[in-house]
Amino acid sequence: MMQLGQRPQAGKIAYESKASEHREALKGLALDDGIPDSKKINEYIKTKRNQIWGDVKPFFMVAQQRKCGFCEVKLTESTGDVEHYRPKNAVWTVRNPGSEREELVNVRGRTYSKDFESGYWWLTYSWDNYLVSCPTCNQKWKSAVFPIAQARSGPPVVGDESSETPLLLDPFGTESPSNHLAFDALGQIESYQNSVIGMNTIETCGLDRESLRSDRQEKAARAYWLLKRLPTSDTESKTQEILQDIREMGRIEYAHSGMVRSIFEQSTGMSWSQLEAAGPSV
Ligand SMILES: [Zn+2]
């Protein structure tokens, strides 16, 4: 995963003018003795969903360099889903993580505990709850899963988002993925130093699926190969050349460059911004 800073600002004002009307409409549907009517909310979302999220998508595609916010594969115009970080109409937990079938797209043995039929409905039309993801991460793995540190005694209620601690990394969040996710030279992912956030992020989005490992392998192997040569390089120019190669591999627009950055930061103890500051811009 790549840390991307703030969500895009471009497109937000035009979006807000339409979204506020939807948010008000949902509030009206939700207040039935204070209990959200999830059926009505889902109906509203269904009928109003397509157009506004189609408007949002290009801005997030640009901000995310056309990469899935969770697994960092490159997206095409037709493959990106506008995903809700906090699920809009249900909250599930993973019971059995399952595994990828050989034909890649389908998941075998994954089961959920479908805890609540209503989700973070009031964030359905919230810009700060969006990212684009590949359909595999979104539909086949994450679905309505949203792990938090606290125990849930009921469905989410308005305001929960400011007091709960998410255990799913947000590419637009403040947590650095390098503190939570680690990769080996085969492209395998695991939680870094037993990070609970790392573990939950991997499980929620299926980031340890074989097709992703295989997609990451070449870059992971090359990053480790370069880092191994670093301490033994006998001239300053050789060192600079290796660092330049690593900087190039970690360019934000490349698939799995967040992984390259994590490998570099965890192996050297340097931050990526220190590496960028130490050399010519690429
Ligand atoms: Zn993905």
Give the tags.
single chain, 282 residues, alpha+beta, 2 domains, two-stranded antiparallel ribbon, 11% strand, globular
Structure description:
With 282 residues, the protein is an alpha+beta fold. The chain folds into 2 domains: 12-169, no CATH class; 175-198 and 212-282, no CATH class. 42% of the residues lie in helices and 11% in strands. The chain has helices spanning 12-30, 38-63, 135-142, 160-163, 196-205, 210-229, 236-249, 257-268, 272-277, and strands at residues 81-84, 91-96, 99-100, 107-108, 111-116, 130-133, 181-183, 189-191. α6 (210-229) packs across α8 (257-268). The mean pLDDT is 92. The structure holds zinc ion (ZN). Residues 68, 70-71, 73, 133-134, 136-137 line the site of zinc ion.
What is shown here, in short?
By secondary structure, this protein is α+β, with helices and mostly antiparallel strands. 42% of the residues lie in helices and 11% in strands. Zinc ion binds next to helix 3.
